[in-house]
Amino acid sequence: MGALAAQVSAVIPCKDEADRIAATVRAVAALPQVGRVVVVDDGSTDDTSRVAREAGADVVRHDRNRGKAAALETGAARVRELERADGQADAVAPVRSALLFVDGDLQETAANLGVLTQAVLDGSADMTIATLPAQITAGGGRGLVVNLARGGIQHLTGFTAVQPLSGMRCVGPRAFDAATPLARGWGVETALTVDVLRAGLTVLEVPCELQHRVSGSDWRGQLHRAGQYRDVWLALVARGWRPWHRG
Ligand SMILES: Nc1nc2c(ncn2[C@@H]2O[C@H](COP(=O)(O)OP(=O)(O)O)[C@@H](O)[C@H]2O)c(=O)[nH]1
Ligand SMILES: [Mg+2]
């Protein structure tokens, strides 16, 4: 593994992505900046773990579903364990790679994630966030969760996030520390942005040509958005947001 390749470790949290995870893992592993790919299978009932392993990922599995934030924490812990095993880090001066958080459903388009790493590796940002183009598959939501997250982040930090819920992020060690412990479940992205900015660190949104499966307007999609709304709300309130106090 070259010096450059050691600089970024990818963490892919996912559930029931057996149809898409192999393509995602291969695309991420092929990025020259990425040294290792850890997939966290969050209690899938399909073949996600096996497929991811066969595609070359290091796979950690939660026996039961624990949510996206818990999966990211498991993945980050696994990365540090692998770094220690490689002798890259020692107790005195640990060398910690940046983490690249990647949703499991991007498939081949994950090959375009390289643009996220540059600003973190050259030190001009502590965390980058991918903004996605219009998606080929239409979404079934009306932007309620996005507006909640954007408004809350704005209120707490002054930062206007174009796509506050985007899960594709390159997170430097200082940014990860500032956001740990992560907010639970689907609140993780919103809270990451708030916590990193409040620590005085730099956040940058970077356009990235990605396509993912967008949750639809069926009951499953609505349930997903209800859970997202709850978790984003809880993450914001835990950080001092009090929307009911506004006139
Ligand atoms: N850790 C974890 N990840 C999940 C869970 N459900 C979905 N995911 C992953 O989170 C990412 C986004 O989920 P997705 O269903 O595509 O929702 P959307 O993109 O917000 O419409 C994908 O990589 C999923 O595999 C879960 O329960 N736990
Ligand atoms: Mg998706």
TrEMBL record:
It catalyses: an NDP-alpha-D-glucose + (2R)-3-phosphoglycerate = (2R)-2-O-(alpha-D-glucopyranosyl)-3-phospho-glycerate + a ribonucleoside 5'-diphosphate + H(+); (2R)-3-phosphoglycerate + UDP-alpha-D-glucose = (2R)-2-O-(alpha-D-glucopyranosyl)-3-phospho-glycerate + UDP + H(+). Its cofactor is Mn(2+); Mg(2+). Gene3D superfamilies: Spore Coat Polysaccharide Biosynthesis Protein SpsA, Chain A (3.90.550.10). The keyword tRNA-binding does not apply. Pfam families: Glycos_transf_2 (PF00535). Residues 9-140 form the Glycosyltransferase 2-like domain. Its EC number is 2.4.1.266. InterPro entries: Glyco_trans_2-like, Glycosyltransferase_2, Nucleotide-diphossugar_trans. Keywords: Glycosyltransferase, Magnesium, Transferase. Belongs to the glycosyltransferase 2 family. This is Glucosyl-3-phosphoglycerate synthase. It comes from Ornithinibacter aureus.
